Amino acid sequence: MGLRSYIKQLNYSYEVTTGLYMLEPWEKAVFNSVVMVGFLLTTYATYNYVSKLTGGLF
């Protein structure tokens, strides 16, 4: 299995698991944007919390 088919399989699994396969492209973009913003905010908050917890070692 090549890299391209592996990425297609991952994308297919993501769309089927989250139900995105039945949405229009603009709806997929909105959903993926919300997911990305949530992920980035969680990452930012975690980084800030860990840096304060460890006294700025990171």
Structure, explained:
It comes from Podila minutissima. 78% of the residues lie in helices and 0% in strands. The chain is mainly alpha-helical. It has a domain at 24-58. The longest helix has 29 residues, at 25-53. The model has no long low-confidence stretch (mean pLDDT 92).
Largest sheet: none
Assembly status: single chain
Shape: elongated
Individual helix count: 2
**Number of extended strands:** 0
Structural class: mainly alpha
Rg calc: 17 Å
Helical amount: over 70%
Task: Detail the poorly predicted runs.
Answer: none
Q: What is the terminal-to-terminal distance?
A: 39 Å
User: Roughly what is the average pLDDT, rounded to an integer?
Assistant: 92
The fraction of residues assigned to DSSP E strands is under 5%
Series of secondary-structure elements, N-terminal to C-terminal: HH
What are the key terms here?
58 residues; mainly alpha; 2 helices; 78% helix; membrane; Ser_palmitoyltrfase_ssu-like; endoplasmic reticulum; transmembrane
Give the SSE layout.
Blueprint lengths: L2 H16 L6 H29 L5
Describe what is shown at a glance:
This protein is 78% helix and 0% strand.
